[in-house]
Design brief:
The protein has 2 domains: 10-131 and 298-306, Aminotransferase class 4, branched-chain amino acid transferase, N-terminal domain (D-amino Acid Aminotransferase, Chain A, domain 1); 139-277, D-amino Acid Aminotransferase, Chain A, domain 2 (Alpha-Beta Barrel). Mean pLDDT is 96; it is low at 311-316. The strands form 2 sheets. Strands 7, 8, 9, 10, 11, 12, 13, 14 and 15 form a 9-stranded mixed β-sheet that branches. The protein has a 7-stranded antiparallel β-sheet with strand order 2-1-6-5-3-4-16. With 316 residues, it is α+β, with helices and mostly antiparallel strands. A hairpin with a 2-residue loop joins strand 1 and strand 2. It has helices spanning 30-34, 58-71, 80-94, 134-137, 164-176, 220-233, 244-247, 280-293; strands at 10-13, 16-19, 37-47, 52-56, 100-108, 120-128, 139-143, 181-185, 191-193, 198-203, 206-209, 238-239, 252-257, 261-268, 271-272, 304-306. The protein binds pyridoxal-5'-phosphate. Pyridoxal-5'-phosphate (PLP) binds next to helix 6. Pyridoxal-5'-phosphate is lined by residues 41, 167, 193, 196-198, 217, 219-222, 257-259.
Length: 316
């Protein structure tokens, strides 16, 4: 399902823009040995008419990265302003004029052990990523036999590299079972999320989504969608536990996330969701989301950081 990725000319490593080939870390670093790294995935949306790229909800992503570094007990942290400026500098260095996926990674470098908390390195990538076909076609989902991490085992609100082995196993299982994507339940047996995305169902015209205490990442897209549906579509989202059997009763369903944007789910465990086609609320929400993210609707301007029309980022 993956659209082909073209690697960029430049990446950012520890304060410098470097050629793609030169962004390397040591094989014995705690990041490589133990997954001691945290990251953010962010989108920069290109607006053709305005000839501008907008980085979407940069401040909120950087705040979450700060939180991740705090939970993982990093010795040093970079300021949001510094990280924002490096991100914009990298996009400009590659001269992107198309939608990109940005990854900010901070990691435990050096040759330390499992409990090392520094030195801390930073790397940033921005890779062109057009809107994939699955957004208009929808995907099939299968409930995973892998249970989503519990917060008393690993901090699920943190985007820690090591956490992603949980979702990786679920995704591999989905692929083996010929589903496009996986849906994980939490230790209580209610719906949690997908391996890199949150989940919404529409039941009797009402959006429902698992609560932030349901072993999910506190997704920024989830927050955006709850607000957009309330403000523009008069739909109040119910944040509550979703039982497995409810999955087979919903009229529409979709995954959401920075990477997955709003991806319709058209079947779950091979049972069609609603009529098995992309639902009307989902389509309307996709349209609204992209208009806001690309700045085609002027509202929520603080969510969009322009890349080219200002020399430095707002103190994000
Ligand atoms: C495990 C997980 N859940 C949910 C999400 C969606 O979060 P966001 O909307 O902040 O990108 C992501 C993606 O970052 C994720 O990795």
């Amino acid at each position: 399902m993956d659209d082909a990725k073209k690697m960029p000319k430049y990446l950012h490593l520890n304060g410098k823009v470097v050629p793609y080939e030169d962004a390397k870390i040591h094989i014995l670093s705690p990041c490589v040995k133990y997954g001691a790294g945290v990251f953010e995935g962010i989108r920069g949306y290109w607006n053709d008419q305005q000839e501008e790229m907008y980085v979407f909800r940069l401040a909120e992503h950087l705040d979450r990265l700060q939180y991740s570094m705090k939970v993982m007990r990093y010795d040093e942290v970079y300021s949001n302003e510094q990280m924002a400026n490096w991100t914009l500098e990298l996009i400009r260095a590659n001269n992107f004029r198309e939608t990109v996926h940005i990854r900010l990674m901070t990691y435990v470098d050096g040759a330390g052990e499992q409990n090392s908390t520094g030195p801390i390195g930073i790397a940033i990538s921005a890779i062109a990523r057009p809107i994939p076909k699955k957004l208009s076609e929808g995907v099939s989902a299968g409930v995973s036999s892998w249970v989503r991490l519990a917060d008393n085992a690993m901090p699920v609100r943190v985007k820690c590299n090591a956490n992603y082995q949980n979702g990786r196993l679920a995704s591999i299982e989905a692929k083996l079972n010929k589903y496009d994507a996986s849906l994980m339940m939490n230790a209580r047996g209610t719906v949690a999320e997908g391996p890199g995305m949150c989940f919404f169902a529409i039941r009797n015209g009402k959006p429902i989504t698992p609560p932030v205490t349901g072993s999910i990442l506190e997704s920024i897209t989830r927050d955006t969608l709850i607000r957009l549906m309330g403000e523009y579509m008069s739909l109040e989202t119910e944040e509550r536990e979703i039982d497995r059997s409810e999955l087979y009763a919903c009229d529409e369903a979709f995954y959401c996330g920075t990477g997955w944007e709003i991806t319709p789910v058209t079947s779950i465990d091979r049972a069609p969701v609603g009529d098995g086609k992309v639902g009307a609320i989902t389509k309307k929400l996709q349209d609204l989301y992209f208009k806001v993210a690309k700045g085609e609707i002027g509202d929520h301007a603080p969510w969009r950081t322009p890349v080219y029309k200002r020399p430095n980022a707002r103190a994000a």
